[in-house]
Amino acid sequence: MTTVLFYIFALLVACSAIGVAVSRNIVRTAVCLFFTLTGVAGLYFLLNAEFLAAVQLVVYAGGTLILIVFGVMLTNRLPSAGWDVKPWEKTVALGIGAVLASALVASILSLPPRAQPDESGAYPVLELGAALLGDYLLPFELVSVVLLVVMIGAAYLAKGRRRNREAQP
Amino acid sequence: MPTTGTFFQDLLLGPEPAAWAVLLFRVAVIAVAFVTLVSLVAMLCIWGERKVAGHIQARLGPHRVGPFGLLQSVADGLKLLLKEDICPQQADSLLFRLAPYIAFAPVFAAMLAIPFGPNLTFEPRLSVGVFWILAILAIEVMGVILAGWSSNNKWSLYGAMREACQMVSYEIPLGLSIIVGVMAGGTLNLVELGHLQGGGIHTWLVFANPFAMLAFGVYFVASLASNKRAPFDLPESESELVAGFHTEYSGIRFSFFFFAEYAAVFVVAAIQTALFLGGWHDPFGLIGFYTARFIEASNTSGLIWVNVIACAIFLAKVTTIILVVMWIRWTLPRARIDQVLYVCVKVLLPLACVLLLGAALWQLFVADQPGVPWFDYQPWSWAGWAGARAGLITRLILAAIGVSLIGALMIWIGYAVISGRRRILRLTDPEPIV
């Protein structure tokens, strides 16, 4: 049962990941990425990492990807517009891809065959919360400070640009 | 604590079922119960919406097809099934055809965690219940955005963009207000949250502390917006955008969007019920009391009856919330997009942050530990309460406020019904014109 579901989700992730790479239409790429992220969330579910799966859905599939699509829709007017790929770009991309693929294959081969779900029956969310606000409180808070800095920077940039534009005419 | 999660599964399949039997049972539940539930909910909601609109705006709702026009939704469904399925020539046909399913499937998946009764949850062990529903509903936007984009129509695209910015911004107050409720309960699992509220109306989490009561209101407004219900229904505002993101859709694909919308309204109202309004419990704590007694005595038929009644109570509460949602839709005018975002960013978001902080401080300094576990609760005695006095008094005062508000609402509705009936009598029996 779990094995069958694993292969279904793995197939979904793999096929849509290939779609992300192959598709020439940028919105279709985003849709393929959506299925990849959802499939990864399914894999997390099979590993009993329910919290991680829900976070994957809400942050990546429901948040980041929506923003990406939002940006694409604002910037890309023509649905059929593709990219012009020059030959030297192709060689560079192939080279980088080959290096990354070999690194991935090497690391996968050195791992145990498949991650096993944690069957200990523990209540993962409670432990996770206790760990985040207990042992790992300092990193947790530091990450949130970094996010705050990013947010303030983005607001400053957006506002500054608008002020410049108002000053110009 | 007695584990009661898979009671019906155990009842049907025995204590140690084979893997294929469990699989078959679950697939059957999904195929039979969920499909029926989602389509029934959507059909009844559409019918109810028309009747409510008819009563509120003094127009005639459906009244010819069947008693009270009950078969109107069936007739509409048949019509939509038989209509031609049109895909515009310039549209991205693959995404255009895919979008309704992406909008519809998440709502379906959200049904997994909704607790209809003490033993009537599909997946009671889901430890992140509330968060799961929130996460899966966040995906629904993707379908709407794709529908708007792939239609290749500027009105659809405007609708989709409004939906995107509205959804992404209202997620935050929605999530924060849910966290306030979850903090008062101490768990994310919806079944456990339901059991926590088993001891009468004053144990419902909306009355747990003043912040939870305000969070209840914030959640309600934010859920209206994230479900694109009026007054926040800008993604499909007819007067500006033809029909918004589903302008180009016809036939059964169009109806998928409607099913998704009404099922999402149901799911959101169900979270509100399960998290704040005591879930499947009645105000006197009788359901929790009898559930505990029957589990102790392993009284199977009693447990089944308790579950049926609990399910009815749960659905009654959800229906009440949905009726209020409809009432708001037919009463308030539509807001502008800048007003919608103002409400989110400058009103609800700061309010939700303050509520979160306040609820955290309350949990640290004032809160009582949940007094008596639900299975030891006596509905008619105060003696077993072990928590802090301040918490109990606050709960009782807030419960009194809530009950009086509900009473006032009922009196108001009663008055409206009576005066409305008087007007209908006048309309149907007019004075002769001289």
Q: What would the average pLDDT of chain A be, to the nearest integer?
A: 79
Low-confidence stretches of chain B: none
Outline the biggest β-sheet of chain B.
none
Terminal-residue CA separation of chain A: 66 Å
Describe the structure in your own words.
The complex is a heterodimer of chains A (169) and B (434). Chain A has 169 residues and is mainly α. Chain A has 6 helices and no strands. The termini of chain A are far apart. Chain B is mainly alpha-helical. The termini of chain B are far apart. Chains A and B meet through α2 and α3 of A and α4, α5 and α6 of B.
What is this structure, in a nutshell?
With about 170 residues, chain A is mainly α. Chain A is built from six helices and no strands. The mean pLDDT of chain A is about 80.
Topology:
The complex is a heterodimer of chains A (169) and B (434).
Chain A lengths: L1 H21 L3 H21 L3 H26 L11 H23 L14 H10 L3 H31 L2
Chain B lengths: L6 H7 L5 H38 L15 H11 L10 H18 L18 H22 L3 H32 L4 H7 L13 H17 L11 H4 L9 H25 L10 H11 L3 H30 L7 H29 L23 H40 L6
Helix pairs in contact in B: 2-3, 2-10, 2-12, 3-10, 4-5, 4-10, 5-6, 5-10, 6-8, 6-13, 8-10, 8-13, 10-12, 11-12
Which terms would index this structure?
heterodimer, A: 169 residues, mainly alpha, Four Helix Bundle (Hemerythrin (Met), subunit A), 6 helices, 78% helix, 0% strand, globular, B: 434 residues, 14 helices
